[in-house]
Amino acid sequence: MGRSGAARRPVVLATLVKGSLLRLGLGLLSLGVLAACDDKALTPAPAPSASAAQPRTLSPELAAKPIATVGDRVITLGDYAATIERMDQFERLRYQSEDRRKQLLDEMIKVELLSREARKRGLDQKPETKARIRQILRDELLRTVRAELPAPGDVPEAEVRAYYDKHKAEYRDPERRRVAHIVVADKAKATQLLSDAKKASPMQWGQLVQDHSLDKPPKPSVAAPLELAGDLGIVSAPGVEKGDNPRVPAAVRKAVFEIAAVGGVYDGVVEADGKFHIVRLTGKTDARERSFAEAERSIRVQLVQDKLEKLEQDLEKQLRERFKVTVDEKALDKIAVPGLEPSGGSPPPQK
Fold first, then answer.
1. Which of 62, 241, 223 is nearest to 231 (CA)?
2. Which end of the chain has fewer CB within 10 Å, C or N?
3. First to last CA, the chain
4. 3-state DSSP helix/strand/coil percent for the chain, to nearest 5?
5. Count of other CB atoms within 10 angstroms of residue 17
6. Cβ proximity of 25 and 136 under 8 Å
7. Contact 238, 254 (CB under 8 A)
8. pLDDT computed for residue 95 by the predictor
């Protein structure tokens, strides 16, 4: 069932408000009110003109065509198309009909009217408004940086293969085993149960778990059949980081790798954390090395992520060199975070 017009409106408004705040932010940035910067280090960007929006779907001439005015603000066809392009692909599908397109234009006009009134009331000068604008400008800058990156499918195969060859150890999957257990608090009882567990069928094993184990489901179910009772999950061999499982005590993990065959039970009671375990091997996956073809897609994604991280780090480094950044860490100690005050509820003294 589709969402009602009222339910969709916040999504549309969010898109429109973001565009409106971005225009406002660019204008404020050009006036130098967002940050105290060295004027010689940064040439102010010109405020966007009414025809600044140049969506991919329109020629410059069409993009500049006015479709509405609000006071001295001209809303162009480019502004309208850019608003649609900022939406996600599913939201765009809602604007195929003439009525929907008129509704969107009406929403744009409402946003312009409300934003003008907000500026008239000085809301654009509130610290929280400026903070939101800075965040939007940050997101837009990072989006621009990300647009310079290749898609995963466009990364050269030679680069992908070089990464695979250099990181082959990461694509070796170790042997993994699935372990189940019966755990009791008494060693004598565990020793007695061990004899029955060694000759038990899967269903009989499940019944033993159900009757005696401290770690058991409330009752058998379709989601947790009796023969899988006592399951602890999958582990790799001791000392292998891949496949570590916090639910499995180290002694139990060691024991399951000493069982010869799937379905077998360890020949002894395993003590761990003051309790006594009967350990059963219920499944096994042999060690294997993933081929280049199997790893290629994940490598391509990883390479693009690495490129993005480097781009962002380089950009931040350049900006830190361009603009002086100073930090007073001692001043942070004077901040009382609501809900984290010392006992008694009194904030620390301000000095």
1. 223
2. N
3. 59
4. 50, 10, 35
5. 16
6. yes
7. yes
8. 85
Phi/psi region, residue 125 (left: phi>0; alpha: psi -120 to 50; beta: rest), is alpha
Note the pLDDT tens digit of each residue in 84-135: 888 888 888 888 888 998 999 999 999 999 999 999 999 999 999 999 999 9
> How many other CB atoms are there within 10 angstroms of residue 23's CB atom?
19
Q: What are 76's strand-pairing partners?
A: 66
For the chain, which residues score pLDDT lower than 70? 1-57, 217-224, 243, 340-351
Which tens digit of pLDDT belongs to each residue from 134-174?
A: 999 999 899 888 888 999 999 999 999 999 999 998 898 89
Based on the number of CB atoms within 10 Å of its own CB, is 59 exposed (0-12), middle (13-18) or buried (19 or more)? exposed
Q: Are strands 270-272 and 275-285 parallel, antiparallel or unpaired?
A: antiparallel
Q: Residue 135: name the closest of 283, 289, 22, 301 by CA.
A: 22
Give how far the C-alpha of residue 28 lies from the chain's centroid of Cα atoms, to the nearest Å. Answer: 31
Q: Are 70 and 113 in contact (CB under 8 A)?
A: yes
C-beta of residue 173 within 8 angstroms of C-beta of residue 287 = yes
The answer to whether the CB of 83 falls within 8 A of the CB of 106 is: no
